[in-house]
Amino acid sequence: MSKNISNYEPISLMEPMLPELSHRDQDLENLVVDLIEKASRLAAQLNPTVQKSIGSLVRSMNCYYSNLIEGHDTHPRDIERALAMDFSTQPQKRALQKEAKAHIAVQKKIDESPDNPNLVSQKYLCYLHKEFCSHLSDDMLWIADPDTKRKVEVIPGELRKETVTVGQHIPPRPENITNFLKRFEGAYRPDRLSKPRRLLAVAASHHRLLWIHPFLDGNGRVARLFSHAYLKLIGLGSSLWSVSRGFAKSVNEYRACLMAADALQTGDLDGRGNLSAQGLVDFCKYFLRTCIDQVQYMESLLNTKEFLRRVEIYCEEEIRAKRLPKGAFFLLREAWYEGQFERGRAKEITHYGQRQASTVLNAVVKKGLLISESPKGPVRLNFPLEAVERWFPNLYPMG
Asked: 253 near 261, Cβ under 8 Å?
């Protein structure tokens, strides 16, 4: 980082903003069609109440993988403890727990709030940054210049006032960021785009936002939260899947594709903008393939027959170990199909007497497999980490 230098940069430096759908290369168009089909099918697969429960699980997963991309490996158990306000006494681990909790809180707002049609605006991007950063520990809001070691404070929700270098890329100067964000908004406003081009805009805007690098720190997390919100806005994203898991699973390719999209145009066949058109096309293909891969992965996990078989095996093992009573599976199966059920139906569902049915229900609730908004309210599925490891294989890299 160095002292600000007044030097105008034309917004044309960021062109092209969208890849072209070409008849000579139909891969991009095929990926768009494939993702629309698969994401729509997944969204229609589950009871809305079950989707809500799975949404809480996926938010934790998304947070874990998004932070992992940044080199912050917070164990899923520590994330679960943070959500229960059980923070470590170790300063570094506590800070990472707060970072995880902040990410989940912002995504929860995205998932549960009405869609924001102005999400491509500078105001919304600053909102995401502020919401995330305002939950962090004070020591996480300072970064050091790698050369001078001078520390600079990150102000939640404020655009950077420093020049920066990100690898080999030099983002726009601070005084020009607002102009680039205006072009960003104009290019990616969903109401100005057809449905296929909206999906391309999600992919392209992910790179271009990182190219602008509007904030001193937290740009990667903001970009991934922004992409999640954009996918939801256009009706393809949901709380059932996360592209961040795919990025983290192929993090070297993710970074390489981002870098390739930073490259300058290489000749007459590489588009008419300042940046490489092929680099942007390749990044968009990677983005869409990653989305499709994660939708398919979650679809396979949420297949009713296979999911309930895993739950049944889990219950059988827990019953043998005397950690659950017989009849637990019937309650969990009912919650899967119906979304939720009244506690008084436990007798009907288990075919036990009232006393034994209540005993089974209370045991399942105590284990955290069913939860309720109130002590006597209806119960729905919950996914504590201990069950997640068995019900959702490979969701996390357990070890």
From this structure: no
